[in-house]
Design goal:
Rossmann fold, alpha/beta, ATP hydrolysis activity, P-loop_NTPase, 431 residues, 8-stranded mixed β-sheet, CheY-like_superfamily
């Protein structure tokens, strides 16, 4: 994900401007600028405040060096700078705060580099040379692929839908190198950012409270970057603060995702599925995550039927997660018979891998490399890509139910299995 000032063409712009706070940096920048063939008079005193004021009335340079030593709120000031910078500007910041989190936040906001003061001539030359290379690099985006939107829905709480959503987003971004957005719509209790050891930020709550602010620039600032190819939008809203929304903000976010990313993964709680039906309008693939239990079978039937009626364009993938190696509550055969379709992917239960993923702050798929769990996650990704890829050629595939099926009838048929199952269990206990 690139910041707004990292797009655009070279055009007729000054190659370099600098705004610094101290005499040492001022003299050093003038000397190095002269070495690189740039006008030394483009080095100015005044730091961030002067930079924002100056660039609000003049054209932005190709490369901008700005001193943040006198900035009380670096991230907010960088956002103010972005508002006055034209597309294409590569920004190098400098400051006296030696903090890894600040560095990551600044890079995530779109700056090219952050130099800790005092810096030397060699360090400055390297940073400016790298910035020049970034600005002049070819901007060939390569062959365009149609945007893919995937909704991940859990049939019940605790089946691991969020784990599957984060794993899918990670694999698409890391293994397939596709720019991917992950949207966690559990506003109060979402765990997508937590699973990757990230702070969720206020981006999602800000979007809900101020939908009119949502645009490409908002997306760049609000999303938290997990890697160069993966960005997350989530929240941890106070539980005494209900989020009142008609869902319009979510729809606008997804519209912006289509412009900025190749893939959008929505971690969609089932209550949101019912409350905001329009979120499924443009979904290509719906991943239904379930467990092999009686209650999950009932709810899988209901959700598959809902998807058939409300999102007929979506291709369906059923993933049974956390399947114990021993006998599950319901066998795979009986489960598939009850939902009248096959389970596409079985993800085995592995407590050690799950605990390790939580401990390391990594996705299940990343932690499970080389294991059966990892292979199942990869199979899920391949199935999703396959369904999205052949959607136009075979729109009738993966039907969620047979024609003429009655939802009430299907649930009733399955409930008829309950007495015999309980009787068998009681007989086993007596024995």
């Amino acid at each position: 994900m690139n910041a707004p000032w990292k797009h655009g063409s070279v055009g007729q712009r000054d190659p370099f401007h600098a705004f610094v706070c101290d005499d040492h940096s001022f003299d050093l920048l003038r000397a190095v600028a002269s070495e690189m063939g740039w006008a030394p008079e483009k080095v100015n005193k005044g730091g961030m405040r002067n930079a924002v004021q100056s660039l609000s009335i003049t054209a932005s340079p190709q490369i901008l060096f700005v001193d943040m030593s006198e900035s009380g709120d670096p991230l907010n000031d960088i956002n103010s700078l972005a508002e006055v910078c034209e597309p294409g500007t590569v920004v190098i910041a400098a400051g006296q705060v030696n903090d890894v989190r600040l560095y990551r936040d600044l890079v995530a906001s779109g700056i090219q580099d952050y130099l800790l003061k005092p810096f030397g001539a060699d360090q400055l030359r390297d940073a400016l040379a790298q910035a020049q290379a970034v600005f002049l690099a070819p901007r060939d985006a390569g062959p365009e692929r149609p945007h893919m939107t995937v909704a991940v829905v859990g049939t019940r709480g605790g089946v691991g839908a969020s784990s599957m959503a984060t794993s899918l987003a990670w694999m698409l971004s890391e293994k397939k190198k596709r720019p991917t957005a992950l949207l966690d719509l559990d506003i109060h209790f979402g765990t997508n950012a937590l699973a990757m050891d990230l702070e969720p930020g206020r981006g999602l709550t800000d979007a809900i409270e101020n939908p009119s602010r949502i645009d490409g620039l908002f997306i760049e600032r609000a999303m938290v970057r997990a890697s160069d190819m993966l960005a997350i939008l989530s929240a941890e809203a106070p539980i005494n603060q209900p989020m009142m929304t008609d869902g319009g903000a979510f729809y606008q976010l997804l519209e912006e995702f289509r412009q900025a990313f190749e893939c959008s993964i929505i971690d969609l709680p089932r209550n949101m599925l019912i409350q905001h039906t329009h979120l499924m309008t443009d979904v290509n693939v719906a991943v239904v995550v379930t467990e092999l239990s009686l209650a999950a079978a009932r709810d899988t039937i209901r959700i598959l039927s809902w998807l058939k009626s409300n999102a007929p364009q979506a291709r369906i993938l059923v993933v049974a997660n956390r399947v114990h190696p021993g006998a599950p509550e319901i066998s795979r055969k009986d489960f598939e018979q009850s939902i009248e379709r096959k389970v596409d992917v079985i993800v085995p239960f592995d407590l050690r891998i799950a605990a390790q993923a939580a401990k390391l702050g990594k996705t299940l798929a990343e932690t499970a490399k080389g294991s059966k769990v990892g292979a199942a996650c990869t199979a899920m990704m391949d199935e999703v890509l396959g369904l999205a890829g052949d959607e136009a050629d075979n729109p009738g595939a993966k039907s969620t139910a047979r024609k003429g099926d009655s939802l009430l009838g299907k649930i009733g048929d399955f409930k008829s299995m309950i007495p015999s199952r309980r009787k068998d269990k009681a007989t086993a206990l007596e024995g």
